[in-house]
Amino acid sequence: MRRIGIRFWLINKRLFKTFSFLVILCLVPLLVTGFRLGAGADSGVARILLYLPNQEDELALQAASRLMENNGVLYYELCTSEEEGRKAVESFRADALWIFPENMKEALSAAASQGMGGKSHTVEVVQREDDVRMLFTRQILCAELYPAFSYEMYTDFVRRQCGLPDVTDEELQQAYNSTLVEGNLFRMEYLDGVPAEEDSSYLLAPIRGILALWLVLCGFAGAMYYMQEECRGMYSGLPVKAQVSWALGVQGVLLFDAVAVMLAALKAAGVFTTWRREIPTAVLFACCVMMFCNLLRLLCRRMELLGGCIPLFLTGMLVFCPVFLDVKGPRALQYLLPPYYYLKSIHASFYLGGMACYSLILALVCLLLWGRAGSHK
């Protein structure tokens, strides 16, 4: 144990004297700081201006207030005039302008009387172009207006289509409220039962995936460091078993430091779960990354070839692993990428077992290749 501790200290000391390793470590605080600053600032996929021509319309004021209280994916702001809002949209200072009617209740009542296929509208939407973002914003607007619109549809159905024009507003309101569902219809949870934080910033969501790719980059760096020292002849006099231990030692020490930095970054970013979940998952992920990078090192054999493969593999992991989006791509390819297991296993123990099995398979293949290399020597 004393000899292992001395080797750990010497390898770590040598790593911290390597400029490229320090640069890789410094990427993490810069990354987390940038994400935190971005999450704290006013941000959104679209900037929506709201114009209320009648400042005394209670229904319109309530709708606008609820929208502005939920600034997040969309950023809302009031404008003083319709002309000002249109100029802001034309000059790219805003993505859309929502013009509320003079009387929201009358507009909703007119739309309800015409039915879903009617030509009457309640809110006028002004935008430069129609794309996925604008379709998303209109869905948000419809969801905000739907409760009031559904009540107007209900009253129109009872009084006009059911032939009950004498029913009072109080009776209608009482009957309508008795059927309302209090609270949310859906509850968002992960597979392990942990509730999903709906109010978390969408800018902080991909930080775990980016840190996972950063750890893979650290694994590749460890493999490159060992290959560089191997080219200098530092391990030429050692038997194959000793070379295997040194290769794993160099990469293991580097990944040990990287895991500590990654856990601290997750904690600082506010996406940390629990120590009982994070530490075993991160350690197993580091082992998986070490075996994965070792396998590629043994297959490539040359630093130049491995260096050329690094951008390709990182790009593939960025696309097929759930870093920004959970792409339903080819499962066979996704199961070959270590970050896929890590990002899935945070809230699903099934993938934790899968990552352990995958790491074991990689280790067996690496031992087989090491054995063949030793027999050739």
Explain this structure.
The protein has 14 helices and 4 strands. Helix 3 links the parallel strand 1 and strand 2. The protein has a 4-stranded mixed β-sheet, with helices on both faces. The mean pLDDT is 83. It is 66% helix and 5% strand. Helix 2 runs parallel beside helix 9, helix 8 packs antiparallel against helix 9 and helix 8 packs antiparallel against helix 11. By secondary structure, the protein is mostly helical. The protein starts with a helix and ends with a helix.
Task: Provide keyphrases for this structure.
four-stranded mixed sheet, 14 helices, mainly alpha, 377 residues
Task: Itemize the secondary structure elements and their pairings.
Elements: H1 2-16, H2 19-40, E1 46-51, H3 58-69, E2 74-78, H4 82-90, E3 96-99, H5 104-114, E4 124-127, H6 132-161, H7 169-177, H8 207-231, H9 240-269, H10 275-300, H11 303-320, H12 331-334, H13 338-345, H14 349-376
Parallel strand pairs: 1-2, 1-3
Antiparallel strand pairs: 3-4
Sheet-strand content, in percent, reads 5-15%
Total number of beta strands: 4
Share in helix: 55-70%
Q: The biggest beta sheet, please?
A: 4 strands, mixed
